[in-house]
Amino acid sequence: MGVELILRLTAVELLLRPMGPWGVRPLILAAAGLALLSPRTLSSSLTWYALTGLVTARIVADWPLPDNHIYLLTYWCLALALSLGATDPVRTLATSARLLIGTAFLMAVIWKALLSPDYLDGRFFRVTWLTDPRFTDAVQLLGGMSAAQLTDNRENLAPLPEGAEPLNHVAPSDPPAFRYLVLMSTWGVLILEAMVAFAFLFPAGARAGPFHHLSLLLFCGVTYAIAPVAGFGWLLLTMGVALCRADQRALRAAYVVTWFLVLFYSEIPWANLMVSWLT
Amino acid sequence: MTHLSSVSNGSDSTPARRIAGHWRTIIPTALLLGVAATQMVLVKVADLSPWKGGGFGMFATTDGTAFRYVRLFVDAPERSEELNITESLEFDAVRAQLFPSRRFLTRLGEAAGARERRHGREAATVRVEVWRVEFSDQPLRATGRRLRSLTIPIVRQPQAN
């Protein structure tokens, strides 16, 4: 049941977010659809090797446009194919899931804490909250900023040519709630990601404890309420299911519920509804 | 073709089985690390956007798609002007702005030149510029900085009889 559920969730994700150029997209959809309809196709390693090849072809065809979770999806399809050929698929898959999650989060932490020049000082979230239209509702709801303030701030952040100085520069307004939002998001995301990376990479081994599950569920439940990358959330939660032992039914159910929560986050503009309701 | 037929009790009794189990888990992670290391190098030496390339640098820096842009300038006798990025050029433009390699810049410049010719307009060269918006901290202010620029000669295609 455990492996079958993991395979099904991965196939559903491939169907929910069609990807790639026209030469690849129908093949991915057909393979994922067939896997859902036929148990034999679903549990065949050949299906997952084929999907690994197709998702890789998508990455190559569109490079460098694909998002990072498409790369992770490729590694995951490969891990599924390799695990299905192993003597102990459940254990092999659990170890792969653990290593992939831990390494991906470690890379994310390295970028934020060491390589990026504008993350730790809060610039990244300050600029992103102010300028990215996908976060307009969240900024109004959590950052105490009105729609008019947001528009003014966006205009004030229009780029100048290199070397130019504005005659009358107006700095973007920073209500206290917005400053708090920037601080919390900058450090909250970094700490959560570091927690997941640490939990999943140390100590090594296939068994996952409560800290693994708690950190991953917390990360997905919080992050994907705001971040518009449901595909990444589904993938991480599917890997989380792979970490559950056969007797951990409640935990597996928690991952599936969070999987659907991420689906609802992506399809229901909850922040917009709350802003409308509050105003 | 292998099918999932059984779930073992998890005991790896022989060293051969242990090794077999390990290589199956190591390969995907090794691929992830290899791609991520390559991405880091490309970011540092070739201006690849940290958000892209499989290095998991998304949501870490403002240097993403939203804060990079491309400018195209066409030159010909009696003509020198900036071009709009039209829908037909969009894919090549996004590609060039995220990874401004000589190959992608050339492809975009040639596509823009060919488009001008198709519309009966002269084009001797197309200059492709990739810009990035940088943000200073105090006060928060945006400045455009040119990352790369390349001028591409547009070769006239022979007329078919």
Number of helices in the DSSP assignment of chain B: 3
What oligomeric state do these chains adopt? heterodimer
Distance between the termini of chain A: 47 Å
**Nearest-integer average pLDDT of chain A:** 90
Number of strands of chain B: 4
Structure in a nutshell:
The complex is a heterodimer of chains A (279) and B (161). Chain A is mainly α and 279 residues long. Helix content of chain A is 73%, strand content 0%.
Describe how the helices and strands are arranged:
The complex is a heterodimer of chains A (279) and B (161).
Chain A: H1 2-16, H2 25-37, H3 39-42, H4 45-62, H5 68-84, H6 89-115, H7 123-131, H8 136-142, H9 147-156, H10 176-201, H11 210-226, H12 230-242, H13 249-267, H14 270-278
Helix pairs in contact in A: 1-2, 1-12, 2-4, 4-5, 5-6, 5-12, 6-10, 6-12, 7-10, 8-14, 10-11, 11-12, 11-13, 12-13
Chain B: H1 15-46, E1 68-76, E2 79-83, H2 90-98, H3 102-118, E3 125-136, E4 141-153
Antiparallel strand pairs in B: 1-2, 1-3, 3-4
Helix pairs in contact in B: 2-3
Description:
Chain A has 279 residues and is mainly α. Chain A has two domains: 1-85; 116-158 and 170-279, no CATH class. Chain A contains 14 helices and no strands. The longest helix of chain A has 27 residues, at 89-115. A four-stranded antiparallel sheet of chain B has the order 2-1-3-4. In chain B, a hairpin with a 4-residue loop joins strand 3 and strand 4 (141-153). Chain B has three helices and four strands. Chain B has 161 residues and is an alpha+beta fold. The longest helix of chain B has 32 residues, at 15-46. Residues 1-11 of chain B have low confidence and may be disordered. The interface between A and B is large, with 72 and 56 residues.
List keywords for this structure.
heterodimer; A: 279 residues; mainly alpha; 2 domains; globular; B: 161 residues; alpha+beta; four-stranded antiparallel sheet; 4 strands; elongated
